[in-house]
From TrEMBL:
Domain of life (superkingdom): Bacteria
Keyword Protein biosynthesis: no
Name of the protein described by the UniProt record: Alkyl hydroperoxide reductase
Main location: other
Entry keyword Signal: yes
Record-annotated Thioredoxin domain positions: 23-165
Native source species: Flavobacterium ammoniigenes
Subcellular location: Cell envelope
InterPro entries per UniProt: Redoxin (IPR013740), Thioredoxin-like_sf (IPR036249), Thioredoxin_domain (IPR013766), Thioredoxin_ResA/DsbE_sf (IPR050553)
Species classification: Bacteria, Pseudomonadati, Bacteroidota, Flavobacteriia, Flavobacteriales
Signal peptide start and end residues: 1-20
Length: 165
């Protein structure tokens, strides 16, 4: 009986945790700081708070990522079709000079931040990052409405943004 009870508790805990991750960020992710283009460190929760009241697309990318670069025209198409949406780019580059030159080279319009410890670091793990580019969509309240989309999911991203208008 004790084993069954422990199994039920473990399942319930796992189920609640995985569902919560899909509609909100963990406290670890929210408290992690990211490098801003002005050299300051900004908590992820403050980045999200800044976009409150706007539908937001978060793109996790890196200047060295071939799939990220190939997806840039689609991102620009999304921006043209959804000018009311805020775009936040979070880089997984290893150095700030590569990151900043990538922003300039690809003419990325939006807010820009860089993770301090790349894909396998604290922030990457906290958002379950296993592939880039990765897209996350937040509604106007900051709730996650699309948690895991990649460069082949632009139809889904577009449809999600259309629903949130």
């Amino acid at each position: 009986m004790k084993k069954l009870f422990a199994l039920v508790i473990a399942f319930a805990t796992f189920s609640c945790t995985s569902n919560a991750q899909k509609t909100s960020f963990s406290n670890v992710a929210l408290s992690e700081t990211l490098l801003a283009t002005d050299g300051s460190q900004v908590a992820f929760k403050d980045i999200i708070k800044k976009q409150k009241g706007k539908t937001t697309v978060i793109e996790v990318w890196a200047s060295w990522c071939g799939d990220c670069v190939k997806a840039m025209p689609k991102v620009k198409e999304l921006q043209a079709n959804h000018p009311e949406v805020a775009y936040t780019f979070i880089s997984m580059d290893k150095t700030s000079d590569k990151w900043l030159s990538g922003i300039e080279k690809h003419e990325l319009k939006g807010d820009h931040y860089m993770a301090n410890d790349q894909m396998k670091g604290v922030f990457g793990q906290a958002i379950d990052l296993n592939w880039i580019p990765r897209y996350i969509i937040l509604d106007k309240t900051g709730k996650i409405v699309l948690y895991r989309a990649i460069e082949t999911d632009f139809e889904l991203i577009d449809a999600t943004l259309n629903k949130l208008k």
